[in-house]
Amino acid sequence: MPSPIVETRDFSFSFGREPVLCHVSFTVQEGEVVSIVGPNGAGKSTLLKCLDRILPGGTGSISLKGRPLHDYSQKELAALISYVPQADARALPFTVMEFVLMARYPHLSPFTSVKPADHAAAREALVVTGTEGFADRFLGTLSGGERQKVFIAAAIAQGAEVLLLDEPTTFLDPRHQDDIHRTLRRINAESGATIISVTHDINTAALFSGRVLALKAGAVAFCGPAAEIMDNSVLERIFGKRFIFAAHPVSGRRLVVPEEVV
User: Does any domain span residue 1?
Assistant: First the structure.
């Protein structure tokens, strides 16, 4: 049986004396789509950043493709994992094409310039994400949804096998949320990329993912098939409240519906 593409064993991480992740263990197989959910402050974004070594250190172990995370050079790691941060309003002083081309650095040597193959990879990533029409525009002229799709295009152009996404649809309107989810589904289906995504939306996790990892106070509270989290015996333990459910009108999947506020 092949090694998981991502594996943590008894991993803990602290900011100074404040523990953030506590004895986290889970595996992700190649090609999976996994969502990470949990209350505010549960350690979701911290876990993503530890997987990409944005936050180094911690105890226990993290392995990628059976190899310890700390054994990877930064360039090797960038060729394997790409990270897409939360949407924000940063006005980076680059055109879309310049920004996406910068993601090709794992494939360049220190003294070589961008090659035709790099331009081709960048153009293909823009096409996949539907952003090719923005190639010559500056990032600061794009809407939040358009800019988030460009960040995903850069992650694709990077050529990594694993995409880490930190709340990729936060602050986006429903149309752009749907665009992002369709794009990610297509990337997973066509390239086999492994996707690990943090979300606050339980319904998104249930509809988009094959499996869900739930954190509470930095510890694993649930890890299993997405459909199995839609149960109050599970969700109440994670979020400290009971939920109301309804069947999706098309797929029949169980989803959370808002409570009526009187």
Answer: no
Show Cβ contacts of residue 93 under 8 Å, excluding neighbours closer than 6 positions: 138, 140
Percent of the chain with pLDDT over 90: 61
Task: Single out the residue of 250, 240, 93, 81 nearest to residue 161, CA to CA.
Answer: 81
The dihedrals phi and psi of 247, each to the nearest 5 degrees, come to: -85, 135
Q: Which domain holds residue 12?
A: 6-257
172-203 pLDDT, tens digit each: 788 888 888 888 898 899 889 999 999 999 99
Does the pLDDT at position 1 exceed 60? no
Q: Does the residue 129 lie in any domain?
A: yes
Confirm whether 165 is domain-assigned: yes
189 CB burial (10 A radius; 0-12, 13-18, 19+) = exposed
Residue type, 208: F
43 or 105, which is more confident? 43
Tokens representing 173 are: 């309107």
What is the distance, to the nearest Å, from the Cα of residue 143 to the centroid of all Cα atoms in its chain?
20
Within-domain flag for 68: yes
Q: Which residue has the tokens 């990270």?
A: 83
Taking phi over 0 as left and psi of -120 to 50 as alpha, with beta for the rest, 223 belongs to: beta
CA distance 99 to 9: 35
Angstrom distance (rounded) from CA 245 to CA 234: 13
Q: What CATH number should be reported for the domain holding residue 131?
A: 3.40.50.300
> How many folded domains does the chain comprise?
1
Give the integer Cα–Cα distance in Å for 125 and 151.
10
